[in-house]
Amino acid sequence: MKKVVKMVFLLILCLSLFGCGPSEKNDDVFIKNLGKALEARWKITDSSNTNNMTNEEYRNHLSKAIQSEIDKLGNYEDYTFSNEKISLYAMNYIEALAMQKDGAQYYGIDDTKYTEMFGQGYINRCELIYLLNNESPLSVGTSYKDSLDAVLQNGKNCYEEDKKLIALDDMLADDLALEFNGDDYVFTLKNTTEYNYESVTLEFIICDSSGTEVNTAYVYLDNFKSGTTIKDAVYMYGNYDTVKVHGYYYRDYNNGYQACITNDQKVALINNYKIEIVLRTELPVEVKYSLSSGRVYTKCNITSFSYEEGYWSNGSASMTLHFSGEKTYDRDGDSNDSYCHFGWKLYNEDEVVVDSGSVYTDKVSVGEKFADATCYVSDLSPGTYYLDIIDN
């Protein structure tokens, strides 16, 4: 029994001192494997002449290079990490490799998907290599040192750009509001970040009550320096209920440009310019159109009324009045097609007549209904108004 115990002790000692058994895949092992994975990938990409490759050959070339890196790294689940940052960066790095692998198949087929997946995967990898190197320095062979330095510099640039983009996102999320001034919706925005933005576009997405986009508006901010405050207006029209905004700008990327876009942020709408029209006539109501002799020419029942706000200018707005109903009498017989006429008067809160007019329906015969007979009121200031439907 003592011999057995002694042999087990010696086996344990051998494993711990001399690595006789399999080593644990920990943080250091992942960093070492990442260096080997990059070398494996660069060995393929640096030794291949891609100029004369067909699109299919280049797709296979990309896939082979990516797979060589994946094979060296293995699965995220194979590692046991003690550094939370390395653990997170490692998981995201392996996901970025998978994104690139999926995106490579779109080369020469779908440029948009290729850029979104392979291109974004490259940016993510560069940034994560930079962050991983900050936690634990990467090591590659001498022949690959320049390649690593270039990736680290690119990753640093990507990281700084991401911080700049996140700062813009936080700025737009900080209670941005559009307030109506009688002409347009205006907003004030202060650059509370440490960054200077050479050129930023704000895209306002205007939606109806169902959330469907009905319009977009753009505001261009040039030389938006840290600490500066801008005031601008957003032109909106149509039936809108909610507004979202995101910002974007372009940064240098791979001898071209890449759009940097923030998340959509909800914008508060403040509008103290309100017009209310109260119908004082009880519906349904019968109204008539009479000749100068007093003889009644037509009669109709008005059964519904609604109004719609139009454009605002200099603090006043136009309104559209809508009426529906049914013709009940025609001097020339029930089968005669002719207009129904009726009148209206609009009063302010002091009972002063501010406008009046006549409404002409479509040509209808007795018993036929008409819909959406309209008239227009202009230059109404904010407030409550009262409408009477009258004979004409």
Secondary structure layout:
Layout: H1 2-18, H2 27-46, H3 55-73, H4 84-104, H5 111-135, H6 145-173, E1 177-180, E2 185-190, E3 197-207, E4 213-224, E5 229-234, E6 242-253, E7 256-261, E8 265-270, E9 275-279, E10 285-290, E11 296-313, E12 316-330, E13 341-347, E14 353-360, E15 369-380, E16 383-390
Parallel strand pairs: 1-8, 9-16
Antiparallel strand pairs: 1-2, 2-5, 3-4, 3-6, 6-7, 6-8, 10-11, 11-12, 12-15, 13-14, 13-16
The dominant shape is elongated
DSSP helix fraction: 25-40%
Structural class: alpha+beta
**CA radius of gyration:** 36 Å
Contiguous runs where pLDDT drops below 50 for at least 5 residues: 1-22
- Give the ordered list of helices and strands: HHHHHHEEEEEEEEEEEEEEEE
Distance between the termini: 120 Å
Largest sheet: 8 strands, mixed
Secondary structure tally: strands: 16
How confident is the prediction overall: mean pLDDT?
Answer: 91
Helical segment tally?
6
| Number of spatially distinct domains | 3
* β-sheet strand percentage: 35-45%
Write up what this structure looks like.
This protein folds into three domains: 23-140; 171-270, Immunoglobulin-like (Sandwich); 275-390, Immunoglobulin-like (Sandwich). It is 33% helix and 36% strand. The chain is built from six helices and 16 strands. The strands form three sheets. Strands 1, 2, 3, 4, 5, 6, 7 and 8 form an eight-stranded mixed beta sheet that branches. A four-stranded mixed beta sheet has the order 9-16-13-14, with no helix packed on it. Helix 3 (55-73) runs antiparallel to helix 4, helix 4 runs antiparallel to helix 5 and helix 5 (111-135) packs across helix 6. The radius of gyration is 36 Å and the shape is elongated. The chain starts with a helix and ends with a strand. 22% of the residues are buried.
